Amino acid sequence: MKFENAVKRSIKSFYEGRMPQNFFAMREEDADDIKFTPEFFDEMEEELGLESKGQEDDKADD
Amino acid sequence: MIKQTIDAPIPGENYTSDTRNYPWHREADIHDYDDAVDHMITRMSRKDGLSLVYSLLELETPIATITSILLLQAVSRGTLHIDMAIIIAGPVARHIEIFAKRNGMSYDIGADADDEVVYTPSELRAVMEMDKKADAPVEDAPEAAEEQAEAPQGLMAAPSMDGEQASEEEQMNMLGMTDEEETTDGLA
Question: What is the pTM of this model?
Answer without folding.
Answer: 0.62
